[in-house]
């Protein structure tokens, strides 16, 4: 972050398309990644996120468009001439080399002498707290330890950009949390750019400065985790991020920046702050995050309210999710702390009034 | 009752296993171990007046191992087999590499099928074909003569012997190498490129170590087949100087010296066992275990 001006992106995708025969894996993406950023590219399998990462590493050539690294067009640069080491989902540690030799590999390829190689590899193994396994064979290590070897091997050449392809997907849940801490700390200390591909929302939101949501070969939204959660750009993102109430209806009235939308569950007001105002009579969708919906057994004086019956509930940690249904059959989700519900007998009450402010609702784009 | 039934089941299973093992064990005992032991015993027999007599004397061993002829033949045979192993492995590798990485699965299947075809014809027949092809007035020298080269003497030379060995072993070595290279997970090769290892360098930095077991086994087959072969050095190499296999035949022909021939054979077996054991140990050796 210190050696290049922050205004100059380190990675640029300009209208990049990748086709495999008739199949279009990446359908024209534009993306700028700034130096020192932790970017997570997230999407379900087959959305083109891994292909995007592989193009950045040079393992696939883009069919159309341009990929720039540090301002330089990389389209025709061979993978071994790039400085974009990758941490692989399978780790791909060489079984015929021991731990230290694996870490030394990148340095050896760059012509670094044996003594310096060993020193630098050992420093990284120490940093990863696995120096005692230096002379072991890779298959004698646990999953978490191997993960650290893979990180050391990729970082030993001190690259400007590190690529990570679902590196935590093979680990146990408790190790994932540990490694998330290791990765965030490492990224902050080193100040280098991390491009992290994952299908896991919790990983992406926990670590990344910005998240790129991909679907069907296109970028659906780029933004800070908070913004994506609170203000999803479109229905795809809103559904992908989950635990949201998405309603669709016809625009009936415009009053300032507030839009009234008639849905089967009732007419609700939605703030269109910062979004393009739809025309009266047009179809529009909006989303209310499940934790912004208030509820009560009694009718409430909110800008928007709807009466629902309780279908079921889900209890994880201290968070409770209620699944409800309005008279017309529209589903609603409400998320709250367990202690809020402590003095309400859910089963006996059965019917609830849900309420939310126009500002809590977010108008969706196409 | 439950345990009784399990016991019965177990006994039934054991009978099944034994029945299927017996033929193999019997075959190996009668046709391999038996003759081998007999050969070792025969090397201690003595020959008097062109007749072999059972004994336990070291006469043949002393006679053979004390002779230049034997050690010259031993050295030459070893040299030929090592050269054949190295040359054939080197010639086979680019072909196997191309088949494993540069062709589609369909092309690879067809290539492996075509590599099996040479085995349809007797090895001896193929060697006699070379005898015609490589002759002083044969097609190879005619073509070279057309360009003003040669004629070259190719028969009765070490070159001729090598052509014969390659005929015997090359298809097999290419198949074995192709299979072991095709089994390498492509992600390791990509990982090497990603860490700055160029395409050519990846071959010795990653591909050869990854395929080590298969490549060593292929080379071992080449060595074993070449070391024991009689046909190539005899017909294409002109048996000058003789190899161990030729020495065995010469020894039995001259004065019924079966015990001396047995000494040569036992020495060959010992060499093959040593080479086979050490190369298999090397092929499966793991790195960095401590």
From TrEMBL, chain A:
This is ABC transporter ATP-binding protein. Residues 11-241 form the ABC transporter domain. It comes from Hwanghaeella grinnelliae. It comes from the Bacteria. One of its GO terms (molecular function) is ABC-type transporter activity. The keyword Transport applies. SUPFAM superfamilies: MOP-like, P-loop containing nucleoside triphosphate hydrolases. Belongs to the ABC transporter superfamily. The lineage of its organism: Bacteria, Pseudomonadati, Pseudomonadota, Alphaproteobacteria, Rhodospirillales. InterPro entries: AAA+_ATPase, ABC_SmlMolc_Importer, ABC_transporter-like_ATP-bd, ABC_transporter-like_CS, Mo/tungstate-bd_C_term_dom, P-loop_NTPase. It holds the Pfam family ABC_tran. PANTHER family: SPERMIDINE/PUTRESCINE IMPORT ATP-BINDING PROTEIN POTA, SPERMIDINE_PUTRESCINE IMPORT ATP-BINDING PROTEIN POTA. Signal peptide: none annotated.
């Amino acid at each position: 972050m210190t050696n290049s001006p922050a205004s100059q992106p380190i990675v640029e995708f300009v209208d990049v398309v990748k086709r495999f025969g008739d199949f279009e894996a990446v359908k024209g993406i534009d993306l700028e990644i700034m130096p020192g950023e932790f970017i997570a590219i997230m999407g379900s399998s087959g959305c083109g996120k891994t292909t995007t990462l592989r193009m950045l590493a040079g393992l696939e050539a883009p069919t159309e468009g341009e990929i720039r690294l540090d301002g330089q067009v990389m389209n025709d640069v061979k993978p071994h001439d790039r400085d974009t080491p990758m941490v692989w989902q399978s780790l791909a540690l060489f079984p015929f080399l021991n731990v230290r030799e694996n870490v030394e590999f990148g340095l050896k390829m760059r012509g670094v002498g044996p003594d310096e190689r060993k020193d630098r590899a050992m420093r990284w193994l120490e940093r990863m707290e696995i120096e005692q396994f230096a002379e072991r064979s890779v298959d004698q290590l646990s999953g978490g330890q191997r993960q650290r070897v893979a990180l050391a091997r990729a970082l030993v050449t001190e690259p400007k950009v590190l690529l990570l392809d679902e590196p935590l997907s093979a680990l146990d849940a408790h190790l994932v949390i540990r490694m998330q801490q290791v990765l965030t700390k490492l990224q902050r200390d080193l100040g280098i750019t991390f491009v992290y591909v994952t299908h896991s929302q919790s990983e992406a939101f926990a670590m990344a400065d910005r998240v790129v949501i991909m679907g069907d070969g296109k970028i659906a939204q780029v933004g800070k985790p908070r913004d994506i959660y609170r203000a999803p750009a479109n229905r795809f993102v809103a559904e992908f991020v989950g635990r949201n109430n998405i309603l669709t209806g016809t625009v009936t009235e415009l009053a300032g920046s507030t839009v009234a939308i008639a849905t089967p569950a009732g007419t609700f007001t939605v703030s269109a702050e910062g979004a393009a105002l739809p025309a009266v009579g047009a179809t529009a969708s909006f989303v209310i995050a499940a934790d912004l919906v208030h509820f009560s057994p009694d009718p409430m004086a909110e800008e928007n309210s709807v009466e629902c019956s309780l279908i079921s509930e889900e209890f994880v940690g201290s968070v409770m999710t209620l699944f409800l249904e309005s008279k017309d059959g529209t589903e609603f989700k409400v998320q709250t702390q367990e202690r809020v519900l402590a003095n309400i007998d859910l089963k006996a009450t059965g019917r609830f009034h849900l309420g939310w402010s126009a500002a809590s609702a977010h108008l969706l784009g196409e | 009752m439950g345990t009784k039934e399990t016991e019965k089941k177990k006994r039934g299973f054991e009978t099944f296993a034994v029945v299927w093992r017996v033929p193999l064990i019997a075959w190996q005992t009668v046709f391999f171990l038996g003759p081998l032991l007999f050969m070792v015993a025969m090397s201690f027999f003595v020959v008097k007046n062109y007749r072999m007599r059972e004994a336990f004397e070291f006469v043949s061993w002393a006679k053979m191992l004390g002779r230049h002829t034997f050690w010259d033949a031993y050295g030459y045979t070893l040299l030929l087999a090592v050269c054949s192993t190295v040359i054939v492995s080197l010639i086979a590798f680019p072909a196997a590499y191309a088949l494993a990485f540069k062709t589609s699965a369909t092309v690879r299947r067809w290539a492996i099928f075509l590599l099996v075809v040479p085995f349809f014809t007797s090895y001896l027949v193929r060697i006699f074909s070379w005898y015609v092809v490589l002759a002083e007035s044969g097609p190879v020298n005619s073509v070279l003569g057309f360009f003003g080269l040669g004629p070259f003497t190719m028969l009765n030379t070490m070159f001729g012997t090598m052509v014969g060995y390659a005929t015997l072993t090359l298809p097999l070595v290419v198949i074995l190498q192709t299979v072991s290279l095709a089994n390498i997970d492509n992600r390791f090769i990509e990982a090497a490129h990603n860490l700055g290892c160029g395409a050519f360098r990846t071959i010795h930095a990653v591909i050869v170590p990854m395929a080590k077991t298969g490549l060593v086994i292929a080379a071992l087959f080449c060595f074993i087949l070449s070391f024991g072969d009689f046909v190539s050095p005899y017909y294409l190499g002109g048996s000058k100087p003789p190899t161990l296999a030729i020495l065995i035949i010469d020894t039995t022909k001259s004065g019924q010296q079966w015990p001396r021939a047995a000494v040569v054979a036992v020495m060959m077996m010992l060499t093959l066992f040593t080479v086979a054991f050490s190369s298999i140990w090397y092929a499966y050796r793991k790195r960095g275990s401590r």
